[in-house]
Design brief:
Chain A: Its EC number is 1.14.13.149. The structure holds two protein chains of two kinds. By secondary structure, chain A is an all-alpha fold. Chain A has a two-stranded antiparallel ribbon. In chain A, a hairpin with a 4-residue loop joins strand 1 and strand 2. By secondary structure, chain B is mostly helical. Chain B has one domain: Ferritin, core subunit, four-helix bundle (Ferritin), CATH 1.20.1260. The longest helix of chain B has 29 residues. Chain B is globular. The chains are: A mainly alpha, B mainly alpha. At the A-B interface, helix 3, helix 4, helix 7, helix 12 and helix 13 of A face helix 2, helix 3, helix 6, helix 7 and helix 12 of B.
């Protein structure tokens, strides 16, 4: 899940009777599972919520390249290096694709990126954790992309057409990344030395809880979720998605022969789900507020890239203008 | 050197230059001047490392001493690397990154274009795929050189500075040594004289369109990469790139 706690601007839900005719028409369309398209009328709150969510999602793709950039130069084989490079390239593509989807709503990419650099826009909390050993490249693919997929598979049915279609395409690539990530871990657990196996367990120990936090706060502490669910921007609650993720991940964990750092994790026959321990919500909110291990570095790196690149972008604009002028003159 | 040893040497040069430039470009992950450039930089880097793998695999088969492509990449020291000095130069600002790419791409494109007709079938096959990628690389870096050169005052100054900074490494691209001559004679490598003409022709043409000046042909040139004498940068590149296989020599799979 690459978007967390997206503000909807609503304190309580409106009933159909309280809505204007336009709003009612819109809500009925959403209820009937008709996709909303860029040119359709939509409530202001819906538009703003979507801009926030899609921009968060796009920012997450771009910031998410940094923890991988930390290892792409140190990938241990040609095959792994090529795979990681291709994954990073896909993520840049997802970012671009999502920014385009966001722009269909009238938002401006540069403005939204500026908000990110000013600390006014968020990106997924997970990317504020460091990648400390090579197995993190496997664990990020398996757990982080895995958590993202659980969310995004559902988002393929989101009510806004351009976002929904972006998700269809992105999900295919993310599934590929997830399998590759898992394979990195599996190869090391099966054929690796003890040191490599220790790397794998260490990576899982560090990334397990942050991966669960990706789904956001509990439903009863997520006031914006309700409105998003009614608008069908969100289709399943944070807790539902988290449970789905855990249920599908634990058998894979056992197949690896690894453990997660949660003594309370056990199968609950009655519920038909895994029970799990309490998430450290203080840590989650700290990270969201900017106090995670890498928040400052991540934003500083992105800001520097865009600031240092200003003259490059200006050159491209100036050159295009000159070329146009020359073409006009020649015509 | 036997004919085969010459070919091995030549293949390692091609492979190492691709590999080291791909490595340099991957350092830019998350640091490019626009999201579109993140995509483009990684695309070029991927092509180069992919090409390097093809050359290494062929080289490893010929060398036939038990080393595979990975061992050639991760377990040779700097003096055994045969890449051009140009590609190991740091990314610096985006003008330096792009000037380095452009000088290399012109050489790479004409070299691969010639290798497509190599008498060695394997070389010809690898080159045929690679030249398609190199055509795109050259188009892209030429466009950027023009945008920067004929863009703003600042971009013009930066790309001109980059041209001046890197000019001393261009001689190595077009100055043949005994390996280049032997490869040409064997019907594999390009005609060194032709490469030199083509390289200057293209560089001067693009520079003129970009309102840039290029250095003198007889300027002092820094060479040595092709015989394993590198700048100080390569050791650091390898220290990063080879860290895992060196730190965990017992690991046989990753």
């Amino acid at each position: 899940m690459y978007a967390q706690m997206v503000e909807t601007g609503t304190k309580r839900l409106k009933t159909l009777e309280e809505m204007s005719p336009e709003e009612r028409d819109f809500q009925e369309k959403v209820d009937a599972e008709t996709k909303i398209e860029a040119k359709n009328w939509m409530p202001d709150g819906y538009r703003k919520t979507l801009i926030r969510q899609i921009s968060q999602h796009a920012h997450s793709e771009i910031v998410g390249m940094l923890p991988e950039g930390n290892w792409v130069t140190r990938a241990p084989t040609l095959k792994r290096k090529l795979q990681l490079m291709a994954k990073i390239q896909d993520e840049a593509g997802h970012g671009l694709y999502l920014y385009s989807a966001m722009e269909t709503l009238g938002a401006d990419r540069d403005e939204e990126i500026q908000k990110l650099h000013d600390g006014k826009a968020k990106y997924s909390s997970i990317f504020n954790y460091p990648t400390l050993n090579w197995a993190d490249m496997g664990a990020v693919g398996w757990l982080v992309d895995g958590a993202a997929i659980v969310n995004q598979v559902v988002l393929q049915r989101t009510s806004y057409g351009p976002y929904s279609r972006a998700m269809v395409r992105i999900c295919k690539e993310e599934s590929f990344h997830q399998r590759q990530g898992y394979q990195i871990l599996l190869d090391m657990m099966r054929e690796g030395t003890q040191e490599q196996k220790d790397m794998v367990q260490d990576a899982i120990n560090r990334l397990w809880w942050p991966a669960l936090m990706m789904f956001g706060p509990h439903d009863d502490e997520s006031p914006n979720s309700q409105q998003s669910m009614v608008w069908k921007i969100k289709r399943k609650s944070n807790d539902e998605l988290r449970q789905m993720f855990i249920d599908q991940t634990i058998p894979q964990l056992e197949f690896l022969g690894c453990t997660v750092p949660d003594p309370d994790l056990k199968w609950n026959e009655e519920r038909g789900h895994y029970d799990f321990g309490d998430i450290n919500w203080k840590e989650f909110y700290d990270v969201l507020k900017g106090n995670g291990p890498c928040n400052r570095e991540r934003i500083a790196t992105r800001k520097k890239a865009i600031d240092d690149g200003a003259w490059v972008r200006e050159a491209a604009v100036a050159y295009a203008a000159k070329q146009k002028q020359r073409a006009d003159k020649a015509a | 050197m036997t004919q085969q040893e010459v070919l091995q040497e030549y293949l390692l040069r091609l492979a190492d230059s691709d590999m080291i430039l791909g490595q340099r470009l991957s350092e830019l992950t998350g640091k490019a001047p626009a999201v579109e450039e993140e995509l483009a930089v990684m695309n070029v880097a991927l092509d180069l490392v992919g090409q390097a793998r093809n050359w290494y695999e062929y080289a490893a088969e010929l060398i036939n001493d038990g080393r595979d492509a990975d061992k050639l990449v991760f377990l040779r020291d700097a003096h055994e690397y045969r890449n051009l000095l140009m590609v190991e130069q740091p990314n610096d600002d985006y003008a330096v990154t792009m000037a380095r790419q452009f000088f290399f791409d012109v050489w790479h494109y004409f070299t691969l274009k010639s290798l497509v007709n190599a008498s060695d079938e394997r070389v010809a096959t690898i080159a045929a795929k690679a030249v398609k990628e190199a055509t795109y690389h050259l188009r892209r870096s030429s466009e950027w050189v023009k945008r920067m050169g004929d863009g703003t005052e600042e971009s013009h100054r930066r790309i001109q500075d980059a041209f001046n900074l890197l000019w001393r490494f261009t001689g190595e691209l077009i100055t043949p040594d005994e390996v280049d001559h032997a490869m040409f004679k064997a019907g594999i490598g390009p005609d060194p004289e032709q490469i030199k003409q083509d390289w200057f022709g293209m560089v001067r043409e693009v520079a003129a369109q970009a309102t840039l000046t290029v250095g003198e042909e007889d300027a002092w040139m820094y060479m040595g990469g092709k015989r394993g004498e590198h700048t100080e940068h390569l050791g650091h590149i390898l220290a990063v790139m080879q860290f895992l296989p060196r730190a965990y020599p017992d690991a046989t799979t990753w």
